[in-house]
């Protein structure tokens, strides 16, 4: 009888504690994910003299002012901002890339749940792809920007920033590599490219499509990105102070065949040809490429055509000329992969495999 009474009292106490604990838990505010916004400048931070004019100056608005201008953004995440640089993305540099990558890796190794980067659109895909190679975390890293400055009529920057924070704070964003969020769309760094000079719907992923949608903070993912990235990547910027010089030469009808020779003489450690069609170029330029590769300077064949892969040993005999096919990477992304690859000695075959994998 005493045992039964003891059990009954114990159960009553446990029930009361459970009710109290649940009540306390329900009254406590939900812990928000911690997101850091790293600002680099660009149109999203630009101002102009007229709300209807096309002229403006990039990189005038600070990250704190940008955050304060977006209603309800702090309801999605525990937000703070840091100013890494404040430049138009046409002036993006390797130094800023390295500073950005090192800071991201430092933050994501701690209690930060996601990173948003505000960035100009002109070279946004290049910065995204570089970070996709060197960020050492599965936590989301999201780039965003705008095509219209903050002072423009219907400036889209505030909503892009709101949506970028929503993606960075979303648990389903884990493991999807570095992303770009613009105009309600989520893109992978591997596949995204700028397709229009002025339209707000400038970014597309013509080969693989977008990763998902984000509408006023509601995130929907469709699939995972193509290619190795972030924690899968072999590349690292730890201790790296600079990157090897890699130049791009644009192929066209009757192009000057000495351009590659000039780049080699100027100190290029690697060269990317933005070729015609399937990464092709003039016979004289291919001979110049052969001279470069014979000197140990890698030459990668990309294409000036917006879609399609450059085929290995397709229109060009890569073994004959010592060249490497860029696979799906456009010339600007091929340049970045080659820059990272040249941080160590690699054979032509090893370089080719990198372009297949990444």
Structure, explained:
With 358 residues, this protein is α/β, with parallel strands linked by helices. It has two domains: 34-232, Rossmann fold (3-Layer(aba) Sandwich), CATH 3.40.50; 246-357, 3-Layer(aba) Sandwich (Rossmann fold). It has ten helices and 14 strands. The strands form three sheets. Strands 2-1-3-4-5-6-9-10 form an eight-stranded mixed β-sheet. The protein has a four-stranded parallel β-sheet with strand order 11-12-13-14, with helices on both faces. A hairpin with a 2-residue loop joins β9 (212-215) and β10.
Please, what is the CATH homologous superfamily of the largest domain? Answer: L-asparaginase, N-terminal domain
Number of strands: 14
Uncertain segments are 1-25
Summarize model confidence as the mean pLDDT. Answer: 91
Strand percentage, roughly?
15-25%
Which structural class best describes the helix and strand composition? alpha/beta
Task: Please give the order of strands in the largest beta sheet.
Answer: 2-1-3-4-5-6-9-10
Question: What is the CATH class designation of the largest domain?
Answer: Alpha Beta
Amino- and carboxy-terminal Cα gap: 73 Å
């Amino acid at each position: 009888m005493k045992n039964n009474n003891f059990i009954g009292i114990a159960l009553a106490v446990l029930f009361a504690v459970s009710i109290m604990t649940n009540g306390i838990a329900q009254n406590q505010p939900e812990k928000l994910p911690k997101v850091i916004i790293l600002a680099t400048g660009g149109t999203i931070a630009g101002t102009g003299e007229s709300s209807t004019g096309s002229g403006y100056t990039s990189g005038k608005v600070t990250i704190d002012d940008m955050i304060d201008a977006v209603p309800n953004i702090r309801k999605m995440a525990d937000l703070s901002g840091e100013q890494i640089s404040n430049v138009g993305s046409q002036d993006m540099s390797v130094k800023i890339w390295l500073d950005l990558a090192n800071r991201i890796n430092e933050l994501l190794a701690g209690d930060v749940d996601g990173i948003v980067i505000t960035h100009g659109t002109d070279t946004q895909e290049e910065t995204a792809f570089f970070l996709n190679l060197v960020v050492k975390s599965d936590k989301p890293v999201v780039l965003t920007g705008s095509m219209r400055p903050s002072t423009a009529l219907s400036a889209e920057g505030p909503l892009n920033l709101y949506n970028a924070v929503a993606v960075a704070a979303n648990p389903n964003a884990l493991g999807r590599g570095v992303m770009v969020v613009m105009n309600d769309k989520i893109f992978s760094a591997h596949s995204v490219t700028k397709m229009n000079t002025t339209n707000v719907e400038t970014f597309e992923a013509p080969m693989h499509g977008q990763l998902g949608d984000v509408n006023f903070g509601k995130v929907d993912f469709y699939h995972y990105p193509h290619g190795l990235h972030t924690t899968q990547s072999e590349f690292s910027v730890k201790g790296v102070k600079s990157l090897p010089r890699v130049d791009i030469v644009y192929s066209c009808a009757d192009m000057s065949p000495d351009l590659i020779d000039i780049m080699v003489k100027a100190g290029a450690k690697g060269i990317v040809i933005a070729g015609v069609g399937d990464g092709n170029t003039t016979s004289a330029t291919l001979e110049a490429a052969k001279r470069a590769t014979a000197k140990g300077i890698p030459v990668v064949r990309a294409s000036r055509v917006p879609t399609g892969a450059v085929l290995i040993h397709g229109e060009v005999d890569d073994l004959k000329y010592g060249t490497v096919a860029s696979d799906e990477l456009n010339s600007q992304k091929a340049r970045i992969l080659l820059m990272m690859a040249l941080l160590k000695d690699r054979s032509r075959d090893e370089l080719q495999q990198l372009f297949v994998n990444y």
